[in-house]
Amino acid sequence: MAVEVNQSSKETIIEQREKEEEQLWSWGAGTDGQLGTARLQDEHLPQLLNLPSLSSAGPVSILACGGAHVVALTYGGKVLTWGRGNSGQLGHGEMVNTLLAPKPVMSLESYFITQVSAGWSHSGFVSDEGCAFTCGDGSFGQLGHGDYRSHCSPVKVSFFVNKHVEQIACGMRHSLVLLKDNSGNQLYGFGSGKRGQLGVPMDRIKSINTPQFTCGFDDVKIISIGANGDHSAALSAEGQLYIWGRGFGATSDFLIPQHIPSPLLSKAVLGWNHALILSDDGEVYMLGGSHHGVLSNPEKMNPSKHLSGNPFGKLKTRINLINYIASIRVDDHVYTLKLPQHKYNLFCFGETGAAVLERVPGLDGMKVVQIAAGAEHSAIITEDGVIKTWGWGEHGQLGLGSTCDQNIPQTVSLGHDIEHNDATFRVYCGSGFTYAIRTLCPPP
Amino acid sequence: MSYDDVEIEDMQWSDELQAYTYPCPCGDLFQITKEELKLGEEIARCPSCSLYITVIYNAEDFADDKSKSNLEPEKRQAVAVA
């Protein structure tokens, strides 16, 4: 369908439509300007934002939220950043303490950016030509430039110059890069590797400032990667999850990528002590949830209650799971355990303990279409466009009007007059804050 | 309840704050000064929230100023403006 419109009126129409079709809200920790509210304060309820510099740049395709900064990517390949910039993570050519409003990253103007990521205090960008750029804190080598310097403008990672980069993922002090060409080495890590988050076959290297090949994916095609805190994750084309880095709950660190047996997955996101997993039929599971959302409750912060009475001790054999009856042979004894089907689907075992992949409660009968994880909170969108949050709430990051923690997903209200019909919703989490985007569906 | 146990070598020295720091999940930084370490304090607090971490360090390293030179951060942040 082609409609001839002269250029100037076409631009006016696009501008107008974009303004009408996309709305952003933010809430949570805001003392570094990361909420885009033009105020340096926390917000406990969703704030409808007025961001002219962002709306004039076009609709947002990705909102990457880091420790206290935000990187927005538009469908037109433009990048804007705001929030804390004291390590150069905003990429505007100077260290700025706080930037209250989205500002285009001028040095990327000549590139068409296709993917972005925001870490604790660094940022990563990928262009349509397959180049990777990084800026921000480089103290741990997480920028990948072969040194420990910080940069306040995006710098091309020369290691990947003759390769085609598809994705970059920035964690607290490390980065992962996924290449498009999957023949041979497809995944690389750099930065801090102390918890095994680089997945390189060396024991707990402190930090590496040039990209290192991540082992364990010889026969696996990876389609997406994620990093947060000291965790790393990859999702295969077959819908299988691999996790490495810091352990979850009672498990020890995974020094090399670990396959997590699970149903077919469509997405996995990472917090600092939990992972959230979305199955392809719309169910949400959480790994490491015993820590998550109970930070203010000391009784619940002890290692997973599911582990008490674990007879297995150090376990290095695979558990057999058939019809929700788990069985395992330890020496000459076979232990069996009947799992309550409605609650636990899967177990995975590290070297010294078990981590439970647990179905998130309170979502029965709901199909979830999107998931996001902050450091210690989580957010999801149901197919009806309802936003739900749970976890740590001290800074209002749950958007429920209080600072209470929540163990069960709670519904966030964006306002009484917000129509959920004919619109799609997306949600994104930074360490202690959350963003929601509402986009009107294009007319049929 | 301590949010995490962190070794002093994993903390970063901040000239601006005159403290060893470590990321807090709220977005701010857990902080502990050399004076506090000298006094045997092992809790690093976040000025923005209720969370705190336990710092793991060798008390002798901070007992007097003699060893100060060993404790200065190895990686002073260099900044390139491109």
Keywords for this structure?
heterodimer, A: 444 residues, mainly beta, Methylamine Dehydrogenase, Chain H, five-stranded antiparallel β-sheet, four-stranded antiparallel β-sheet, 2 helices, 32 strands, globular, B: 82 residues, Microbial ribonuclease fold, three-stranded mixed β-sheet, 11% helix, iron (chain B), Diphthamide biosynthesis protein 3 (chain B), DPH_MB_dom (chain B), DPH_MB_sf (chain B), metal-binding (chain B)
Structure in words:
The complex is a heterodimer of chains A (444) and B (82). Chain A has a single domain (23-291, 359-440), classed as Regulator of chromosome condensation 1/beta-lactamase-inhibitor protein II (Methylamine Dehydrogenase, Chain H), CATH 2.130.10. Helices cover 4% and strands 44% of the residues of chain A. Chain A has helices spanning 7-21, 52-55; strands at residues 22-28, 43-48, 60-65, 69-74, 79-85, 96-104, 113-118, 122-127, 132-136, 150-156, 165-170, 174-179, 187-192, 207-213, 222-228, 231-236, 241-245, 254-260, 265-270, 275-279, 284-287, 320-322, 325-330, 333-338, 344-349, 354-359, 368-373, 377-382, 387-391, 406-412, 423-429, 433-440. In chain A, the strands form eight sheets. Chain A has a five-stranded antiparallel β-sheet, with no helix packed on it. In chain A, strands 2-1-32-31 form a four-stranded antiparallel β-sheet. A four-stranded antiparallel β-sheet of chain A has the order 3-4-5-6. Chain B is mainly β and 82 residues long. Chain B has helices at 34-38, 68-71; strands spanning 5-7, 12-14, 19-23, 29-32, 43-45, 52-56, 79-80. In chain B, strands 1-6-5 form a three-stranded mixed β-sheet, with no helix packed on it. The model of chain B has no long low-confidence stretch (mean pLDDT 85). At the A-B interface, strand 10 of A face strand 7 of B.
